[in-house]
Prior knowledge:
Layout: H1 2-14, H2 18-21, E1 23-28, E2 38-44, E3 54-58, H3 59-63, E4 71-81, E5 84-94, H4 96-102, E6 109-111, E7 114-117, E8 123-132, H5 138-157, H6 161-169, H7 172-181, E9 187-199, H8 210-274, H9 292-297, H10 300-310, H11 318-327, H12 334-339, H13 342-352, H14 360-368
Parallel strand pairs: 1-5
Antiparallel strand pairs: 1-2, 3-4, 4-5, 5-9, 6-8, 7-8, 8-9
Amino acid sequence: MATKGATARAAARKQKDKWKSKRWYTIRAPRTPWNFQVIGETLGETPDHLIGRIYELTQHEADGNFSRMHVKLRFRVVEVVANDAITEFIGLEMMNDHVRRQVRRYRGKVDDVVDCVTLDGYYVRIKPMLVTSRRVKSSQKNEMRRLAHEILLQFSARSTWVDVQKAMLSDEMEEMIKDATRVINPCRAVMVRKVQLIQSGVVPDDGMTLEEVIEDEARKVAEVKERRAAALVAAEEDEEDERTLDILAAAESLETVSGVEGEEVAEEEPATVAEPEPAAEAEPGEDDAPTAAQLKKLKKGELVELADGKGVDSSGTKDDIIARLLAGQDLPSAAELKKQKKAELVELAEQCGFDSSGTKDDIIGRLTG
């Protein structure tokens, strides 16, 4: 058993990893009318493994037509050139959910299958579908089906496979059927539900070659890179210019601020030297005449000491001592008091501790006692 297990492990080690041998291939649409447009990528071990593969995508992804998102295009790989897998267009199909949304109760539906041969020998099977706004009779359905059948046969017989593709991808084929069947019964919707390529014909050689397309793509990529590089350089230069402007603006603002501060200091210095700073409220001494506000800020012991120094009775409360000190101050004469305004007299009376109510004469009488 051990020998058999070892043999199996040795055989497993000898097996080649298939994923390592695979590489990516670019899937391209046909030359006409797609100009070898890139429609996808696929993995393959050898080019022979790619031949016959079918690739599907929506029409919106192929040409950017948002109104045709419900249409699936089908391509088949027929040739591999280097890393490019060249395909041929083999038909289209409407998504089932879109078809089901069109058919409702009390509506008529007309289906048909038309086998057509194009001018260049392509054998194509087209399956149209007509939906009427209301139910219709069988005779009307048969007539509408006959008209649609004839239109598709005649149009395919006088058109190439490329022209048929363009008519299917646009609304041209559907509009022709809709206009022809309108005389019998107006159609709510006409659609080419499915198209199948049964047999290929003469392949057209119009348009750019694969080498020219690849060169054009490389040139466009180089131009995009150059524009991006130029835009990046311009953005960096703009950033440097903005930084330089910000630095200059900051320097100018600093110079302006320093200049303003220097002027303010120069203006303030003479005022400071010329005008002495107002002295803080000091304790009243013997030579100055304190006001009532200054006296109220003093403690009672300080008031008693001040009253004793002035020879005023220091007994009683703080208010009594303050009233005696203010009464002992020299007040202006009655003539000088009459020259003052009532507001000034009221302030003087309050400082001296007298009643400040009444007229000017009342206040002057209290002050002169």
